[in-house]
Amino acid sequence: MTDSEYVSESDGVLTITVSTAAAGTSLAPGALVDGAAALREVAGGRRDVGAVLLVGAGANFCAGGDVRAFAGADDRSLLIRDLADTFHEFIRALRDADRPVVAAVTGWAAGAGMSIVLHADVAVAGPSSRLRPAYPGIGLTPDGGMTWMLSRAVGPARARRIILTDEIVDADAGLALGVLSTVVADDDVRTTAADTARTLADGPREALSAAKDLLTAALTTDLDEHLDLEAASIARMAGRPDGIEGVDAFVERRRPSFS
């Protein structure tokens, strides 16, 4: 399995540190490569985890790309295209792993950091947490799926306003918009996110993955199609080990022990 300074596994949770403290908590290319490799192991059944936890290396979750590295490149377009492709392979691997994703959004999540937060199923933040597109400030356009995810999260009009005006979204606004899931004390962000990830990992993994699939499908199906998908999914889960255990445990008035 692929563990590194950016990737670790404990209690059924795969933790990926997406930024590096060495460059001002900027996006870590090594984290993208190692993280994508570990996530592909999850998707391929070679790593048994029930949740993914995304964290930052320091006070910030991720302050965006390493702009100083951009400035020092002989060919900026080539460097940034290579980084974007690597970043997008990580995003695709995060999707394909099909596990609940929790983000511990400490401090700033700007640029690529904000893009990553948008892919989390549960984003835990503190009162001092801030999100910002950041790309317009350096004359670039978003990557990491920001324009796709933000439009779906907050609606096209709000997404245009936030991205085009490079709006700073504080914790309260992020919670109200549905970009953040919960706001706790700043000192509790990492602990709460880790506890949430462990709780998800201890749950009915196949059912949670199937629920994620339904939520994704809901973006492109009409109601009739979606009702059929839900009916097929719940029937399938009823015959699976966790579905059988969950129903039996409820009837027997005990806590379920999911596989």
Automatic annotation (TrEMBL):
Domain of life: Bacteria
InterPro entries on file: ClpP/crotonase-like_dom_sf, Enoyl-CoA_hyd/isom_CS, Enoyl-CoA_hydra/iso
GO molecular function, one term: isomerase activity
Pfam families named among the record's database cross-references: ECH_1 (PF00378)
Record's catalysed reaction(s): a (3S)-3-hydroxyacyl-CoA = a (2E)-enoyl-CoA + H2O; a 4-saturated-(3S)-3-hydroxyacyl-CoA = a (3E)-enoyl-CoA + H2O
Keywords, alphabetical: Fatty acid metabolism, Isomerase, Lipid metabolism
Similarity comment: Belongs to the enoyl-CoA hydratase/isomerase family.
Annotated function: Could possibly oxidize fatty acids using specific components.
Protein name per UniProt: 2-(1,2-epoxy-1,2-dihydrophenyl)acetyl-CoA isomerase
Organism for this UniProt entry: Williamsia serinedens
